[in-house]
Each structure stands twice: as structure tokens, then as C-alpha cells.
Design brief:
- By secondary structure, the protein is α+β, with helices and mostly antiparallel strands.
- 55% of the residues lie in helices and 17% in strands.
- The chain has 16 helices and ten strands.
- It has helices at residues 3-16, 18-54, 73-76, 102-111, 144-151, 164-167, 176-182, 213-216, 224-231, 251-262, 269-272, 274-312, 314-322, 327-362, 382-408, 412-418; strands at residues 60-63, 115-130, 133-142, 157-160, 171-175, 189-194, 199-208, 219-223, 240-245, 265-268.
- The chain has a six-stranded mixed beta barrel with strand order 2-3-8-5-7-6, surrounded by four helices.
């Protein structure tokens, strides 16, 4: 087999029908371009939507849920131990909302190699005083340094600085919706009343905007120490501990372990946000399905063009076989034609796909619900380019294999006799 000669013949056949070749290459280029741009945009959008919730959600949340005691006195009485006891209107016991022995829990988490980081938190309902009206809200006491590093808290503080609630005594960051209700500007002092009836004044140092309007209408943030002071609680009072793991997939198993070890409720991220993972998976699946369909359609175009080329080049194929070229040589020629179209079209498609992704990434996207997002999100993962290149070569190979196989079986005697 003379590789150079076969290559020259394949190039001659390609150039002889260069318009058809160009159409086939453009089909592959368009398919790869749209595949790259579509997947990059869709997965970028998925990351944005999931980030609205998942970035702020701990992998494991430790808390103490107030609920009725499962061991009621009647069940512990020996006369009713073997009976089915139906109890109505059971009230919660003396359980507290705070985590028991929180300092020991934090110490244990710090020694766990599976833990990436943790952030203590206090959540309490309050009433914000707006003249004669009381507006229901929630104040969150946070460790702002850990919240910034683990849960991207700073990204959602649209006005002011997130770290100010740690630097400035008796300060608060209001949800954007809550600030609008209170007509509170930066530097203003707002008054709130706790569930226990205590009134406290806090200085507004920033606005928080998550992108979820209902959330921003009730939420506010202050330092853990400030909220402990507002609630009149000691320095070890904590209602939640948010844990980020090195491997999020281990969260369900570790949550069960922590629940037994710390005698508290432990909620994993998979349980808390199952609907978001499902939606993200379906959107990504649709993107891949559309992209692969485009590649397959381009493959049929190459198949049709090569089939037409075989019918038009019957005489040339007959002469090649009559002058000593074997059926395998003829097959290699047409496979080389198909792979050349796939390679050149795919290479151009990867380039144009990247350029189109850059263009999409620069298109302005402004909405009051997402103040930190200024352009459409795009994911530039190298995996997409690897998949696109692989599929362009695989699709064109199979598109050329069948016509090449047909060309290799042509009997030159029949063709020449017919002439």
C-alpha cells in the first residue's frame, strides 16, 4: 500500500467536487459549533441556577428540632408497656432550639479530616419596627469570615461590605426587600423586637440580595456575637452549625453519623435540594441530546455526499481497480475523504464554537433578581471540546465507512463493459 499515492488520489477526489466537500465540511462545522455553544451555555446556566441555592446550602446542617418526646409516660408504665397507646394533642417537651455542647461539636468537626470547613449560625425570628407597624423578619447570626469562604456570602452583598458586620459593633445587613419595606438607607438605625419582647437598635451597613425576592423580604444578617447580645444569650449559644465537606457525595452517610454522635438533627444537602439536582441533570441531558442529534444529522449529510461521489466516480474506481488497486485500497481512499471532512470541519467547529461562546459570554444580562450577574453565563469546560472532536471523527468515520465499503466491492469489468 502506497500511503502517499492513496493520499494524493483522495485529495484529488475531494478537490474535484470541492463544492460538495465544502457543504459537508460546513455541516460538520455548524454541528460542532452549536454543540459547543449550546452545552457551554446550558451548563453555565445550570451552574448559575444551582449556585443560587447550592452555594448557600451547607453539605450538612446540624440543628436541634423542637418536637414532642417520643417516650410518653403512658408508654413507660408497666401496665401499658405491651399495649398500643393513642395519644392526642401531644405537646413539645422541654427541648431547646440551641445545640447542646456546641463548643465540643465545633472542636470535633475541626479534627475531622473529611470536613472542609464549618460555620456556626444563630437563626431567630424578630419584629422590625417601622413606626407603629411591626414587620416580621428573621435575623441570622453568622461567622462572616467562614460564610464568605464557604458559602459565597460576599457575592450577595450588593451594597456595603460584608465584613462590616464583624468590624462595626451592633450592625446589620438587611435583605434588599426588607430594606425597601423599612425605607432604611446605609447608616440608618433600625429597631427590632425579639420574641421575648426585648427591643434593640442596629446600624444598617449593607444590603443583601439573593435573587429570591421572598427570601430577601424577611432575611437579615449580623455577627454571631451581636445576635447573642440581642437575644440575651451566652457566648456558647448556637442554633445551627453549617458543614462543608471535601466530598459532597458522602454527605448522607456522614449526616447519619453526626446525628448519632452529637445527638442532634443532621440534614444533608441531597435531601434538602433533591429537586435542584434533578432539574440540572434533565437540562444537561437535553443539551447533550440536541448536540449529538446535530452531529448525527451532519453524518447523514456526509454519507449522502460520498454516495453521490461513488456513483459519479464509477469510472475512476474501475480504472483504479483495473490498474492494480485492491478493494481495501479503494476503501481507504473513501474513508480518508470522510475523515478529512470530519477533521477539518470539526476543527473549524471547535474554533467557531469557542468564539460563539465568547460572544454569548459578553451579551449583557441584567435583572434585579440577580444583581451580581452582568452577562449570560457560559461554561468553557475542556470536556465539551473533547466530546465534540471525538463525535465529529466517529460520526464521519461511520458516515464514510458504508459508501467506502460499497466502492471497494465494485467490479471493474462490469463498469468497463457497460461503457
Amino acid at each position: 500500500m502506497n500511503v502517499t499515492l492513496i493520499t494524493d488520489i483522495a485529495r484529488s477526489l475531494l478537490m474535484a467536487r470541492w463544492k460538495q466537500t465544502l457543504v459537508a465540511a460546513i455541516g460538520v462545522t455548524f454541528s460542532i459549533t452549536m454543540f459547543i455553544a449550546l452545552l457551554g451555555f446550558m451548563t453555565g446556566l445550570n451552574q448559575l441556577l444551582d449556585g443560587l441555592v447550592l452555594n448557600r446550602t451547607p453539605h450538612i446542617r446540624l440543628y436541634n428540632e423542637i418536637k414532642p418526646n417520643e417516650l410518653q409516660p403512658v408508654n413507660q408504665h408497666k401496665d401499658f408497656a405491651s399495649s398500643y397507646n393513642f395519644i392526642q394533642s401531644v405537646k413539645a417537651g422541654n427541648s431547646r432550639q440551641e445545640l447542646y455542647n456546641s463548643l465540643a461539636i465545633l472542636t470535633a468537626l475541626g479534627k475531622d479530616d473529611r470536613v472542609l470547613g464549618y460555620a456556626p449560625k444563630i437563626t431567630s425570628p424578630v419584629f422590625f419596627n417601622a413606626g407603629t407597624n411591626d414587620i416580621t423578619g428573621v435575623i441570622n447570626g453568622i461567622d462572616v469570615v467562614n460564610e464568605i469562604s464557604l458559602f459565597h456570602f460576599k457575592d450577595y452583598v450588593t451594597t456595603g461590605s460584608a465584613i462590616d458586620i464583624d468590624r462595626i459593633s451592633n450592625s446589620i445587613i438587611l435583605g434588599k426587600g426588607m430594606a425597601e419595606k423599612l425605607l432604611a438607607n446605609l447608616g440608618d438605625v433600625v429597631q427590632l423586637t425579639t420574641a421575648g419582647g426585648e427591643r434593640f437598635s442596629l446600624k444598617v451597613v449593607g444590603y443583601y440580595q439573593s435573587g429570591v425576592a421572598d427570601f430577601d423580604k424577611v432575611q437579615s444578617f449580623a455577627s454571631v456575637k451581636t445576635v447573642q447580645k440581642v437575644m440575651g444569650q451566652p457566648g456558647n449559644y448556637i442554633t445551627d452549625i453549617q458543614v462543608k465537606l471535601k466530598d459532597m457525595n458522602k454527605a448522607p452517610a456522614i449526616a447519619k453519623e453526626y446525628s448519632r454522635l452529637f445527638q442532634s438533627e443532621a440534614q444533608d444537602i441531597q435531601t434538602a435540594n433533591a429537586q435542584y439536582e434533578t432539574g440540572s441533570f434533565i437540562r444537561t441531558l437535553i443539551s447533550y441530546a440536541v448536540g449529538i442529534t446535530l452531529l448525527i444529522v451532519a453524518g447523514f449529510g456526509i454519507y449522502n455526499i460520498l454516495n453521490m461521489m461513488i456513483y459519479e466516480k464509477m469510472d475512476s474506481i474501475a480504472i483504479l481497480k483495473a490498474t492494480g488497486f485492491s478493494g481495501k485500497d479503494v476503501k481507504r481512499i473513501f474513508l480518508m475523504i470522510a475523515m478529512s471532512i470530519g477533521f477539518l470541519g470539526g476543527l473549524a467547529g471547535l474554533l467557531f464554537g469557542y468564539v460563539l461562546s465568547l460572544i454569548i459570554d459578553q451579551v449583557p444580562f441584567t435583572t434585579s433578581a440577580l444583581p451580581t450577574v452582568t452577562t449570560y453565563p457560559v461554561n468553557y469546560s475542556p470536556v465539551f471540546y473533547l466530546i465534540g472532536a471525538s463525535f465529529s471523527l466517529i460520526t464521519t468515520y461511520f458516515a464514510g465507512w458504508f459508501p467506502a465499503r460499497k466502492a471497494s466491492k465494485i467490479d471493474p469489468v462490469i463498469i468497463i463493459r457497460g461503457k
